Fold this sequence. Notes:
It is built from no helices and 17 strands.
Amino acid sequence: MLWAAAAVVCPQPAPLAAATPAASTLAATTVRGRVEVAGSPNTGRKRHGTIPVTVVWLTPMVGASTSNDSADDSGASMPAPPVQTLRLVQKNKTFDPHILVVPAGSLVEFPNRDPFFHNVFSLFEGKRFDLGLYEAGTTRMVRFDRSGISYIFCNIHPEMSAVVITLTTPLYAISNVDGQLSLPDVPFGRYLLHIWSEGMGPENAQPVTREVTIAENASSLGVIRVPELSGGRMAHKNKYGREYDEPTPNSSVYTNQH
């Protein structure tokens, strides 16, 4: 995987007598980048149509005042985004939205708006849970209390999949249909850039990372090349680690009898 290099610019420490500026007065800029599919012969275009949805986020590096400091992804100096209550709807045997970014500590509702049962689960890295069978018109809730990537499926319908990305930083962006990324109001400094894309899949639960420095003359992430999205659905097994059974649409277990 190829990455555009980011210039390393070391900010000068403030005089000891100077007061530390408030966060709102720190120099900041809009950081931009562009997503391309690795190996694509057409710059800026995916060979077969849509560029995979890609999420990037920045966490501050410890000891960013000198270029010789060791890298440590803590995000300690970045205020955490506010906790929210969000929703991942089950409708027409799909999750909507397919990709959801949530602040750590947030609640996510999983309402069932189909006329049959669902069993939402996530057993990969990130938040692990199993909501069990629940019928049409009911809902379940999960608190995503730590950062990570959660791959979410239904134990009845193998075609259903979603991804919840839980973050402790407000500095993130989701690519648009053209692969463009934009992160507004990023304070100057050294960061760890995290990259997740649809083509990665549950077997690659950890995002790709690299160091970047954001400064007045270095506010571009360059071209971010990601794997091609193959197939119509995310390959996975059921919650027991086995292949899915053949669908049984007439079974009372899977339909709402009310």
